[in-house]
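Supplementary Methods, section 5.1.

A reviewer requested that the exact input to the structure prediction be made available. We therefore reproduce it here, unchanged from the version used in the analyses.
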Amino acid sequence: MDSKAEFIITMDWPDNHPDDLDLFVQDPAGNIAWHRHREAGFMVLERDDRGGANDFIIVNGKKISSPIREEIVTIRGVITGEYTVNVSHFLATTGLPVPATVKVQKLNPTSARRAAPKGCGLAGPFKAPTAPSQKPARRGLLTRGKRDRGG
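The structure derived from this sequence is encoded token-by-token as follows.
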């Protein structure tokens, strides 16, 4: 399997915010990628941001706090059907709703049909895979204790 991602799903919330938000992505086969199951089917949780807890990077041997609040899931192979993306307000240290943005991006656009490159030894044309539903991302406020995994 080619290791490049076909889709990337990002969720971000205000920089330096102490609360921990979690991204859950379910594919049409029922696999769910999340912080306790980072690899599920063709999906990988690439970055699990824990808000203010343990959010640092090492630069030249020094531990530096990272202000960026972002979680990332990549989809490396496409299964035809509906994908569900949910957000959980996992740790609410402030006790207030947190504004978050979720974005779904297709990284490798394909046409409906394509031919194999000359000299590669493959016969063509090849049919491009069907992409997951590309519904617009929603922006809103999250509240503690509500988690819906779709259904």
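The chain has one domain: 7-142. These observations are discussed further in the main text.
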